[in-house]
Amino acid sequence: MERLPPHVATAEEPIESYSGDRRDGPDMRLAMPIETMLANLRELTDDDVGYIDLWRQYLKSVGLSLHLQIDKEGERHLQIGSPADPQIRHRWRWMHFLVRDLDEVEDRRPLLIKLMQREGVCWDQRPVNRRAVTAAMRDFLRSEGRILVTPDGRVEEGAGIPSALLGGTDDEAAACLNANHAFFDVRHRFKADPQIKRAVQMLGHKTNNGWWVLEAARA
């Protein structure tokens, strides 16, 4: 019999009753068996992107949250959280086997981290270089990007497909992609948003419905 960490429920351990408190996670007695999840994931061994997508769905289905933390030195760490409810030991059981399955293929964890960082699902504590943020904004706007501030003060991006990607040269397309990657890299760093928000409100225009918009024509 496999020896599990002390905080992880065994297969024979009964699942605690479900209180239904709003702070609790979903009822683990109704969860898909972990064996079924793992069997379904094995069917995607040749599709890393599909595997990661299903893996994240399974993690969420049992009430576990997933975050990416980037520390000040740039090291990336996956953080998994769980409601502190009576069924937590079984949530950790599902987590234990899902994480172990993820790490059985070397490239999966780096891919998951890359996707989460691209989506902005991270807490990025790397220092913010004000000049780098300004340069990234400028290049993003030049590549037909648009930076928005919502009526409630949130920074967002909005743009169609840049013309450089539709009909530009290889060099133009590469420059456009580099500009987008650089902007999204600084966009989600801790404390970068206030600088971006100030720039949009200083240099952009305000719409009738309360949005601030900054785009190349007005940058």
Description:
The protein has helices spanning 34-42, 48-61, 88-102, 108-119, 130-142, 163-167, 170-187, 192-203, and strands at residues 65-70, 76-81, 122-124, 146-149, 155-157, 205-206, 212-215. The strands form 2 sheets. The chain has a 4-stranded antiparallel sheet, with helices on one face. A 3-stranded mixed sheet has the order 2-1-3, with helices on one face. α2 runs antiparallel to α3 (88-102) and α5 crosses α7 (170-187). Helices cover 45% and strands 13% of the residues. The model has no long low-confidence stretch (mean pLDDT 88). A hairpin with a 5-residue loop joins β1 (65-70) and β2 (76-81). The protein has 8 helices and 7 strands; from the N terminus they run ααββααβαββαααββ. The chain has 219 residues and is an alpha+beta fold. The protein is elongated.
Strand order of the largest sheet: 5-4-7-6
Secondary structure tally, helices: 8
Structural class: alpha+beta
Query: Biggest β-sheet: count, sense, barrel?
Result: 4 strands, antiparallel
Strand content: 5-15%
Report the count of strand segments.
7
Chain-averaged pLDDT: 88
Name the overall outline: elongated
Helix content percent band: 40-55%
The helix-strand sequence is HHEEHHEHEEHHHEE
Radius of gyration: 22 Å
Low-confidence stretches: none
N/C terminus separation: 64 Å
